[in-house]
Design goal:
Layout lengths: L7 H7 L10 H20 L5 H10 L3 H9 L3 H12 L5 H10 L1 H10 L2 H10 L4 H37 L4 E7 L5 E8 L7 E7 L5 H16 L5 E7 L7 H12 L5 E3 L4 H16 L2
Parallel strand pairs: 3-4, 4-5
Antiparallel strand pairs: 1-2, 2-3
Helix pairs in contact: 3-7, 6-7, 9-12, 10-11
Length: about 280
């Protein structure tokens, strides 16, 4: 049986929004828990003590979610901050499991992160409709914007290093490498057409797939680089702590000579010296 060709316009006209109330069992459970927790906090008439935090976590492990909402940060960011306070590498799922295993330790981490004071300040505030709308906008847009800004900040630091050296470079380009292969990079020195040095900067606080995507970007550059080229990677951000296998792959690529050097912001002075040395040796100025 031969099937007729699909008409794009007709297909687009048939597409409709898939209904969803955006509520699951966890959301329903949190809604039921929230009034009681807020009353407990209100009745205290002061920031929660360490003992009260521990009691809430023991009785209601989902109190961790409520605390994060008071904090106004993503799951990834909360996991990162708690990991630092607890001295362990934890994903959000791992942190929630930690509440069941060690509520006292998580409560101590909350206190160290000043969460009781933050929650108390929010409880004392009188909220307006404008405040609610601003918060909704921040939560819907803020996570993506924050991630982009962190990446740009690292790129800006690298750009500042290159500007200090005085070497010519092009920013955010597709360069031409081995046998005409191309790849995108953050910096090509002196130009994209025949670069001597390519630099890729990757900064993350998140712990999700974007870190793995960064690995893919780096490996694309590694495959396209020509024999005469130097390839430097600049990494930073605590998100890498939560993706050790991705970071290990990058380190292994450097150990095998496919990446010349990996720098962090604490060693950008070394990057500056190396770029200056290579450019001077190649171009004489």
């Amino acid at each position: 049986m031969a099937f007729p060709p699909v008409d794009l316009d007709r297909l687009l006209a048939e597409l409709v929004e898939l209904p969803s109330e955006g509520v699951d069992d966890e959301t329903r459970a949190l809604r039921e828990l929230l009034p009681g927790v807020l009353k407990t906090m209100s009745d205290a008439e002061r920031p929660l003590t360490l003992a009260e935090l521990t009691a809430l976590l023991r009785q209601h492990p989902s109190f961790l979610v409520i605390a994060r909402l008071f904090w106004g940060v993503s799951q990834d960011r909360a996991a990162s901050l708690f990991s630092q306070a607890l001295g362990a590498r934890l994903s959000w799922a791992g942190l929630r499991a930690r509440v069941n295993q060690d509520p006292d330790g998580v409560a101590q981490a909350m206190a160290a992160l000043d969460l009781p004071a933050t929650m108390w300040e929010q409880m004392q505030r009188t909220w307006t409709v404008g405040d609610v709308l601003n918060e909704r906008y921040r939560l819907l847009r803020g996570r993506a914007i924050a991630g982009q800004q962190r990446g740009r900040q690292l790129e800006d630091q690298v750009r500042g290093v290159l500007q200090r050296t005085g070497v010519p470079f092009e920013y955010s380009v597709t360069f031409v490498g081995r046998e005409g292969q191309t790849a995108k990079c953050d910096f090509a020195i002196p130009s994209r057409d025949r670069p001597k040095i390519v630099i890729e900067a990757k900064g993350f606080e998140a712990t999700g797939s974007k870190v793995t995507d960064a690995l893919g970007d780096i490996l694309k550059i590694e495959r396209a680089r020509a024999m005469h080229m130097y390839f430097f990677v600049v990494l930073d951000g605590t998100g890498w702590h939560h993706r050790p296998n991705d970071l290990r792959n990058i380190v292994q690529a450097q150990n095998a000579g496919r990446i010349d050097m990996i720098y962090t912001t604490s060693r950008l002075d070394e990057l500056e010296r190396e770029v200056t040395r290579i450019y001077t040796a190649e171009y004489g100025s």
